[in-house]
From TrEMBL:
The keyword Mitochondrion does not apply. It holds the Pfam family Asp_decarbox. Heterooctamer of four alpha and four beta subunits. Keywords: Autocatalytic cleavage, Cytoplasm, Decarboxylase, Lyase, Pantothenate biosynthesis, Pyruvate, Schiff base, Zymogen. It comes from Parapedobacter defluvii. Catalyzes the pyruvoyl-dependent decarboxylation of aspartate to produce beta-alanine. This is Aspartate 1-decarboxylase. Its cofactor is pyruvate. Its main location: cytoplasm. CDD domains: Asp_decarbox. Transmembrane segments: none annotated. InterPro entries: Asp_de-COase-like_dom_sf, Asp_decarbox. Its EC number is 4.1.1.11. The modification Pyruvic acid (Ser) is found at residue 25.
Length: 122
């Protein structure tokens, strides 16, 4: 059996731009993506902690060190500048791998800068 489990999470970032005119996706500071081990074009879920919206889209890398979190296209209808969101990626593993897998958590500070990178240890 294969299971879909949490691969990584960028926890509590602020939306810096919402651009309905863009073709779609979410643009995220490349430093945050690297820390979370999220690849360009990877599918992610974006959970808005302010309005409860949950969407699925794909990631584009933004400028390194910029703190950029831009909701693009239709995704921009689900979050406005200043909203707090969580960005989650998932992977498929077998049952044995699932028992020992530890997702990556990226915590941020002011300006969407990396505060720490940790592994779930439950």
């Amino acid at each position: 059996m294969e299971l879909t489990i949490l691969k990584s999470k960028i926890h509590t970032v602020k939306v810096t731009e919402a651009n309905v005119e863009y073709n779609g996706s979410i643009t995220v500071d490349a430093d945050l993506l690297d820390a979370a081990q999220i690849k360009k074009y990877e599918q992610v879920y974006v959970n808005n902690a302010i309005n409860g919206s949950r969407i699925m889209t794909y990631v584009l890398p933004g400028k390194r060190g910029s703190g950029e979190v831009c909701m693009n296209g239709g995704a921009a209808l689900h979050a406005k500048v200043g909203d707090t969101v969580h960005i989650l990626s998932f992977c498929t593993v077998n049952e044995e791998e699932a028992d020992r897998y530890q997702p990556v958590l990226v915590f941020t500070k002011e300006g969407n800068q990396i505060a720490s990178v940790e592994r779930y240890t439950y």
